[in-house]
Design brief:
Number of domains: 3
Largest sheet: 5 strands, mixed
CATH superfamily of the largest domain: Periplasmic binding protein-like II
Structural class: alpha/beta
Distance between the termini: 58 Å
Helix content: 40-55%
Strand content: 15-25%
Mean pLDDT: 86
Number of strands: 12
Shape: elongated
Length: about 300
C-alpha cells in the first residue's frame, strides 16, 4: 500500500467494525449503510492484501492481521480524537445526555443530588446499574455505551483510567423498636441475632465479608437479597440485623425507623472510583461530568 493511497476514513470504519464485532452496529454508529461499510472493508482488504474478518456463527470475527492492525492504529486514532475534543469546548447550553454506570448505593445517593441541581442546563445525567461482570463493564465502556462508571472494584484494564470519588464505610442496622439491640452491638450479639444478608452482584460475596478485615463467621440467615432497598425494608419490619453502607443507612434511617450502629468488627473503607476509557481523559465533556459528580460530595 503506497503512502499516497492512504485514506484514514477506511481505518476509521475498520476500527468501528473491529470494536463492535458487527457491520450492522458499526454502520449505525457511523451513520452509514451496511453495504457502505462492507464496501469500505472490501476496499481496505484489497489495498492491504490481507483478510481482516471471517464469518463466525451469525456474526464476524477479526483475523490475526486485524488484531495487529487495530493494536497499532487504535492509539493514534485515540490521540486524534483527544486532540479534536481538546479544541472543542463544552457548554450546558447545548443538549447532551450522559450515561453513568454505578452501584445501587451510589445511585441512591446521586439521584436526589442530580435532580436538585439547577445548574445542569440542557444536560441530562442518566444512571444505569453497573453490569454483572468486569468484562461486560469494560466492553460496554469501550463501545461507548456509557461515559463512565462509578464502582468500588479495582480494575487493571490498560486502556482505562480511574480517579478517586468517594469513601463510605460499613455499619449495622436494626429497627428502632428492636427488643434486644439498642444503639450498641457486641460481636456476641451480632452472631446471636438473625440476619438479612446482601450478596454483591459481581463479586459473589456478602457485603460484610468483602469490607471487613476479619473473616466473618457463619451467621443465622433469615433472608438473602441483592437490593439494599429490600434489605432495609425487611429490617424495618423484623428483628433481624443487616450489614449496610453507612451513607445509605443514614439517608433512610428516619423514614424507615432504623438504628444505625457501629459494626463490631474492623471495617475496610468502601472506596468508590470513577472509571473511564483513556480517550475520555482529556475530553472537555467528560472532564465536566467527572467534576460535576465530584462536586456533589465535596462537603462529605
Amino acid at each position: 500500500m503506497h503512502d499516497n493511497a492512504v485514506d484514514l476514513n477506511l481505518f476509521k470504519v475498520f476500527l468501528s467494525v473491529y470494536q463492535h464485532r458487527s457491520i450492522t452496529v458499526a454502520a449505525d454508529v457511523l451513520g452509514l449503510t451496511q453495504p457502505g461499510v462492507s464496501g469500505v472493508l472490501k476496499r481496505l482488504q484489497q489495498q492491504l492484501g490481507v483478510q481482516l474478518f471471517i464469518r463466525s456463527g451469525r456474526g464476524i470475527a477479526p483475523t490475526h492481521q486485524a488484531h495487529e492492525l487495530a493494536r497499532q492504529i487504535e492509539p493514534a486514532f485515540s490521540q486524534i480524537h483527544n486532540a479534536i475534543e481538546g479544541i472543542e469546548s463544552f457548554s450546558t447550553a447545548n443538549s447532551r445526555r450522559f450515561v453513568v454506570y454505578t452501584t445501587e448505593p451510589m445511585m441512591l445517593m446521586l439521584l436526589p443530588k442530580i435532580e436538585a441541581d439547577s445548574t445542569l442546563g440542557n444536560v441530562d445525567i442518566e444512571l444505569h446499574p453497573t453490569l454483572s461482570s468486569e468484562e461486560k463493564l469494560i466492553h460496554n465502556l469501550n463501545q461507548q455505551k456509557a461515559d463512565l462508571a462509578i464502582d468500588f472494584a479495582n480494575y487493571s484494564a490498560p486502556s482505562f483510567f480511574s480517579e478517586f470519588f468517594f469513601n463510605d464505610e460499613l455499619c449495622v442496622i436494626a429497627r428502632k423498636q428492636h427488643p434486644r439491640i439498642q444503639q450498641t452491638l457486641s460481636l456476641e450479639q451480632f452472631y446471636a441475632e438473625k440476619h438479612v444478608t446482601l450478596k454483591l452482584r459481581r463479586e459473589e460475596a456478602y457485603l460484610a465479608d468483602y469490607f471487613t478485615e476479619e473473616s466473618i463467621g457463619e451467621r443465622r440467615v433469615a433472608a438473602e437479597c441483592d437490593s439494599l432497598v429490600s434489605q432495609m425494608t425487611m429490617i424495618s419490619s423484623s428483628n433481624c440485623l443487616a450489614a449496610m453502607v453507612k451513607s445509605i443507612a443514614d439517608q433512610f434511617a428516619e423514614r424507615l425507623d432504623l438504628q444505625v450502629i457501629d459494626a463490631p468488627f474492623t471495617r475496610i473503607p468502601v472506596k468508590y472510583r470513577l472509571l473511564a476509557h483513556n480517550r475520555m481523559k482529556h475530553s472537555p465533556a467528560n472532564i465536566w461530568l467527572r467534576d460535576k459528580l465530584k462536586s456533589y460530595f465535596v462537603d462529605q
